[in-house]
Amino acid sequence: ATCRHGCKYGECMGPNKCKCFPGFTGKTCNQDLNECGLKPRPCEHRCMNTHGSYKCYCLNGYMLMPDGTCASSSTCAMVNCQYGCEEVKGEVQCLCPSGGLQLGPNGRTCIDIDECSTGKALCSYNRRCVNTFGSYYCKCHLGYELKYISGHYDCVDVNECVTNTHSCNLHAECLNTEGSFRCRCKQGYRGTGFDCA
Which domain of life does the UniProt lineage start with (predicted)? Predict the structure, then answer.
């Protein structure tokens, strides 16, 4: 089986036919499936979509059960957690719906962990980290774009001279470089390449 554009989060099952891993969708399985928008809803109260999955959490005063339902809890109501709570050995602990969130100093609200600045994020050498609330993702560096080449996705140089996304002067020629471009004034003109006279 050959899939010309590949299957990013799935496997090739037939000519250009992908079978996506759970949590992903699209012709090439390159899109995250928003499980929170599915019918029936996977969570009883609130749902947070994550990359390839989702997390359930409960309204204040309720406790998250292992099956994703929310049970009324007077202890949770007293603690006043932002995202519901759980009881561990008789002790009430507030929950955060994602590993990219941590309990704040008050022990009730969740604050974001910036994985990009703490070094927790794992991005390949040619990608940069972008922090999001509760998580992060890896994006190609500026001047590069994500393309499917020889069996996998990679960040490849954008040729600004060909795509016409350069800002060279009308009287200058565009020279592509890795991740960027240069401008050089044509013969008979002088300047930076952005300004030629």
Answer: Eukaryota
Q: Could you list the residue range(s) of the whole structural domain that residue 182 is in?
A: 159-196
* CB distance 50 to 31 below 8 Å: no
* pLDDT tens-place string over residues 100-124: 889 999 888 899 999 889 888 888 7
* pTM exceeding the 0.70 threshold for the entire prediction: no
Task: Provide the 8-state DSSP code for 162.
Answer: H
Give how far the C-alpha of residue 194 lies from the chain's centroid of Cα atoms, to the nearest Å: 35
Continuous H helices in the chain: 74-79, 115-118, 160-163
Q: Which range, 75-89, 103-117, 153-167, has the best average confidence (pLDDT)? A: 103-117
Domain boundary among 55, 81, 112: 112
